[in-house]
């Protein structure tokens, strides 16, 4: 049985400290039991290309909390020994790190499981390993690609499908510490 939090960020621009939305999907005993979604005011300009990807604008986040204000609500999930999953985790972990550093908040340390790396190794031969491609292959719903909540749910779904097919022991070899 797997216990983890699937995480996804969207950013306002190319700067990793520009988080403009965050979703977390809590998985306990291989079941999704809770979801968290918020827009975030990055206090930075939005790039038109990024807006085209996720459809979040400066107006959408004008009254939203900053990452410094969101952090106390989610911080208990980012502790040593806690498992956090993401699709292309290097991106999401860096957004977390840089968005917190911007406010002088220390980088959290936690365990990471990257569904992109898992998919590349366990599902060879795909044209690409984008979230939508892997979701389609495994029959995981992705209701709105680049919506942080949809992407987090799909990441969780991919890992749960792989656990169902192959067992959780195999997935443990992909876990690393940040």
Automatic annotation (TrEMBL):
Keyword Transferase: yes
GO MF annotations, alphabetized: 3'-5' exonuclease activity; DNA-directed DNA polymerase activity; nucleic acid binding
InterPro entries, sorted: Ribonucl_H (IPR013520), RNaseH-like_sf (IPR012337), RNaseH_sf (IPR036397)
Keyword Signal: no
Gene Ontology cellular-component annotations: cytosol
SUPFAM superfamilies attached to this UniProt entry: Ribonuclease H-like
Top-level taxon: Bacteria
Keyword terms of this UniProt record: DNA replication, DNA-directed DNA polymerase, Exonuclease, Hydrolase, Nuclease, Nucleotidyltransferase, Transferase
One GO-annotated biological process of the protein: DNA replication
Domain spans labelled Exonuclease: 3-168
Protein name as catalogued: DNA polymerase III polC-type
Organism of derivation: Lactobacillus delbrueckii subsp. lactis
């Amino acid at each position: 049985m797997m216990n983890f939090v699937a995480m996804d960020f969207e950013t306002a621009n190319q700067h990793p400290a520009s988080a403009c939305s965050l979703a977390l999907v809590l998985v306990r005993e291989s079941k999704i039991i809770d979801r968290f979604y918020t827009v975030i005011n990055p206090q930075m300009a939005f790039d038109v290309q990024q807006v085209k990807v996720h459809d979040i604008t400066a107006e959408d986040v004008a009254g939203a909390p900053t990452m410094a204000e969101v952090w106390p609500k989610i911080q208990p999930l980012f502790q040593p020994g806690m498992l956090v999953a993401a699709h292309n985790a290097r991106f999401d972990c860096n957004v977390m790190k840089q968005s917190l550093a911007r406010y002088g908040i220390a980088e959290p340390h936690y365990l990471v499981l990257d569904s992109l790396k898992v998919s590349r190794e366990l599902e060879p031969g795909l044209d690409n390993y984008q979230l939508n491609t892997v979701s389609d292959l495994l029959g995981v719903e992705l209701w709105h690609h680049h919506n942080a909540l949809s992407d987090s749910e799909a990441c969780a779904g991919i890992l749960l499908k792989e656990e169902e097919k192959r067992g959780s022991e195999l997935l443990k070899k992909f876990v690393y510490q940040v």
